[in-house]
Amino acid sequence: METESTDRTSPPAGLRVVVVTGAPGVGKTRLAHQLVARYAVPAAAIDCDPVVYPWQSTESLYALMADTLRASIPVYRDWGSRVIVISGVVLAGRALEPLRAVFEELGADWVCYGLRATPDALAARIRRDAGSEHYVEGRLAESFLDAEVPGVPGVREIDTSALSATEVADAVVAAERGQLGPGWVLPDGATARAEAPAPGGAATPGATVPAPSGAAEDAGRAAGPG
């Protein structure tokens, strides 16, 4: 994975959007929840899969995903989030283009990490996911989406087949630190504490920003168990 060295010692102003994509079952949602605790600035996570199930996708649903993020990202930003991690099946021809337009419209600096895994690894993860027993076959049928990950322009691929969830998070954190500088990411082994916003509405540095009232409905599903 290529990273860009930097001399920054404090995070610059602005909003960072981190898109985590890949086939169903590869570990996108879990990674998003781990990442928000590893940033040194307030962060939040939005899971787009509840809005657009990959095996039921249409252009109108991609538009719905884009409209949902267009409405919810400013809410999290106003609440104090400096980083928003978006997880979902966001591939070229599958939601990427409308989402890219939203990120550019909002002036966000964004990056896409593509998680990949072998068919056997994907199948094993799907079958042991306690929340997926009712739609195992649908998720297995969409495992071919793994092959579409390299088609995402500028995607940073991570082969997760032989990695633990923590090791996948470590790889992304290392890439983020290399590009953005240490002011954005906590030291290895440290995690952010969930705290209320500081007086005046700004979130406390190093905290994971809780979902504002109503934001979870706007976003489909915000950071949380799952």
Features:
226 residues; alpha/beta; 34% helix; disordered N terminus; 5 strands; 7 helices; five-stranded parallel sheet; Rossmann fold; disordered C terminus
Give your account of this protein's structure.
This protein has 226 residues and is of the alpha/beta class. The chain has a single domain, classed as P-loop containing nucleotide triphosphate hydrolases (Rossmann fold, 3-Layer(aba) Sandwich). The protein contains 7 helices and 5 strands. The chain has a 5-stranded parallel β-sheet, with helices on both faces. α1 (28-36) packs across α6 (165-180). The longest helix has 21 residues, at 59-79. The protein is globular and about 45 Å long.
Order of helices and strands: EHEHEHEHHEHH
Roughly what fraction of the amino acids lie in strands?
5-15%
DSSP helix fraction: 25-40%
Shape: globular
Question: How many helix segments?
Answer: 7
As for the number of domains, it is: 1
Query: Compute the gyration radius: what is it?
Result: 17 Å
List the topology elements.
Elements: E1 16-22, H1 28-36, E2 43-47, H2 59-79, E3 83-87, H3 96-105, E4 109-116, H4 119-128, H5 136-141, E5 156-159, H6 165-180, H7 215-219
Parallel strand pairs: 1-3, 1-4, 2-3, 4-5
Helix pairs in contact: 1-6, 2-3
